[in-house]
Design goal:
This protein is mainly α. The chain has a domain of 128 residues. The chain is 72% helix and 4% strand. The protein has 13 helices and 3 strands, in the order H-H-H-H-E-E-E-H-H-H-H-H-H-H-H-H. The chain has a 3-stranded antiparallel β-sheet with strand order 1-2-3, with helices on one face. A hairpin with a 2-residue loop joins strand 2 and strand 3. The chain is globular and about 55 Å long. The mean pLDDT is 85.
């Protein structure tokens, strides 16, 4: 058997439970991200090496998860959720404070962020809970699910990490919607949420309120809280239709754009590849999401 045949057989074994189209989209997005990071990080080899190692680890985890039977995931849902909540409680009691936020647990020489585990644990837990229901869910079912969602969201919000708390809460309500949440309950939630808006606003930290107001109108403080958003808008706008070209972004490489290798990396991409590149990137994400929805249907 030739090397090509052996390699083909190994590839078939490794990818037989992974959708080729989905994997291709993910691989393309990784390539785009790697090229953009190379520019954003001033062509740092060390940062690229770290990203490649993370991607290799992600591939291994993807293969492992793809080969776990759904029944096994269902059995793991409750233990995983309980462990996640206990770890979040551990963060509240013994967590490591970094930049004013208590989000990490120190385990030997490593640190873990339990909120990342809840991104998987909460949807799994809700899917396990609703698997015995068919059709629309009632108020009692919703109340139980709301408690399951509220507990980790509250613990994460206290760290404070409002962004992750909102993301995890949204993922939980997305599962509720797929499980058959009635429009009456959705309308009731919207009414209660609207009425409770002032209370939730009062519970936010000053910097969180400032971020929301700045998101709505960055020009209210263009040299302070709105500086990041303003510079990102300038970078994306200056890219025009086709962009300035890879590694040629002036906003990026003249250090006008802060946090360009993390939070504002899309601005780097928009400046260098323009409207056409940004549109193609969004299409790639839409293909990835669409294919994932088709697979899970």
């Amino acid at each position: 058997m030739s090397f090509t045949e052996v390699a083909g057989r190994v590839w078939e074994v490794l990818t037989r439970r992974i959708d080729s189209f989905l994997f291709g989209c993910a691989l393309a997005l990784f390539g785009v991200g790697l090229a953009t990071l190379f520019s954003a990080a001033d062509q740092s080899v060390a940062r690229m090496s770290s990203q490649m190692m993370s991607f290799a680890l992600a591939l291994v985890l993807m293969w492992i998860l793809a080969n776990i039977p759904p029944q096994t995931l269902a059995r793991a849902a409750v233990p995983l959720y309980v462990v996640g909540v206990l770890l979040l409680v551990g963060v509240a009691l013994f967590g490591v404070v970094v930049n004013g936020s208590r989000r990490w647990l120190s385990v030997g020489i490593a640190r873990i962020q339990p909120s990342e585990l809840m991104k998987i644990a909460l949807p799994l837990m809700l899917a396990w809970y609703f698997q015995k229901f068919e059709g629309r869910i009632n108020w009692k079912d919703f109340a139980v699910a709301a408690v399951l969602i509220a507990l980790p969201v509250y613990l994460i919000k206290r760290q404070p990490d409002l962004g992750t708390a909102l993301l995890i809460g949204a993922s939980g309500f997305y599962v509720l919607f797929l499980a058959g949440l009635s429009w009456k309950i959705i309308a009731g939630m919207a009414a209660v949420g609207g009425a409770a808006g002032p209370f939730f606003w009062s519970q936010l930290h000053d910097y969180q309120r400032e971020r929301i107001l700045t998101f709505i109108d960055p020009s209210r403080d263009p040299l302070g809280a709105g500086y990041h958003s303003t510079q990102a808008s300038i970078a994306i706008g200056s890219g025009g239709v086709i962009g300035k070209g890879w590694l040629n972004g002036t906003q990026t490489h003249l250090d006008f754009l802060p946090e360009r290798h993390t939070d504002f990396i899309f601005a780097v991409f928009g400046e260098e590849f323009g409207l056409v590149g940004a549109a193609l990137l969004l299409v790639l994400y839409m293909l990835l999401i669409g294919r994932a929805l088709v697979i899970t249907a």
